[in-house]
Amino acid sequence: MASLAVLALTLEEVATHAERFDALLPTDPNDNLALSLGLSGLAFLVALLAGRPYIAFLRTHRVGKQIRIDGPEGHMTKTGTPTMGGILFNVTVILLTIVFNLYGRLSMLLPIGVLIGCSILGGIDDKLNLVGGKSAGLTARFKFVWLFLFAAITALVLYYPLGLSRMYVPFLGQYEIGYFYLPIATLAIVGSANAVNLTDGLDTLAGGTAAVAFVAYGIIAYLQGQVQVVTFCFMMVGALLGFLWYNAHPAQVFMGDTGSLAIGASLATAAFMTGQWLLLPLVGIVFFAETLSVMLQVAYFKRTGGKRIFRMTPLHHHFELLGWSETQVTLRFWLVGMMAGLLGVALALQ
Hints:
Blueprint: H1 2-22, H2 29-60, H3 86-100, H4 109-128, H5 140-159, E1 166-169, E2 173-176, H6 181-199, H7 205-224, H8 227-247, H9 256-274, H10 280-283, H11 285-304, H12 315-321, H13 326-348
Antiparallel strand pairs: 1-2
Helix pairs in contact: 2-3, 2-8, 3-4, 3-8, 3-9, 4-5, 4-9, 5-6, 6-9, 6-11, 7-8, 7-9, 7-13
């Protein structure tokens, strides 16, 4: 108990310093939005220009992905495609945040830390999952333990230094939930990271739907006047679009766990920083649906002794086996994500 009290006091001191730095933020909303959009464009250009030499580097060092043999047969042709493309947009956002979005905005150390931590974890898994490797990657339990640790630390920072502990319910208002905030934030961050990871099975699917979700939370943050969160979200959008230039079907590079885990965790972090985390399943409806399809499939399979609800999960594979082309699945999921993002912004205004 004594150690927890010391930790609480230390975090409160950090919160005091963070408030002093955040007081230096510019106050003109138009200037803030212009800067955020400009940095989004810069992130796109950086990722776009760095993409070709980075992919060449991956090919030279034979950083090619193994494809699951239990997936659709048509995906076997993707074996050997360079992976770990998530480094491209993660590093872009981290560097631009340090240069343009950190001074006077120390709260941005949190999403940067999330990107770095999840990128390292995902990178280790991707490294073990290369063509010719002796391993199929990290075990699910190992990844969960480390993701849980990262998420728990993130939740503590959200709760103590940033002083976030409320739940905003559309049409009803906000409610103080106290220490319940910590387990909710932890599980949401872990769930979001895994959800994007499951979605990353088709070219541009995870990256495109994530970009849409970051746009939605960028708008929500702008309406709240949280310029630092706005800038982070739109830099993620720009960097993701730069990556998608090379991830367009047929993909020249995959994001891998290096990218998907970092995207999911940082998206959830941004959602909690805006306070509108209850809208995360809606704004990220594609990620939510993909995860739910897997959970339902596994539960039904065990309960019925081998029967299935879907032809294959995650959900995008089900539609592939129904006869949709990869491009059709991706674009239609994008459209659903866009409408869900608009609805999420609308509910945030209530």
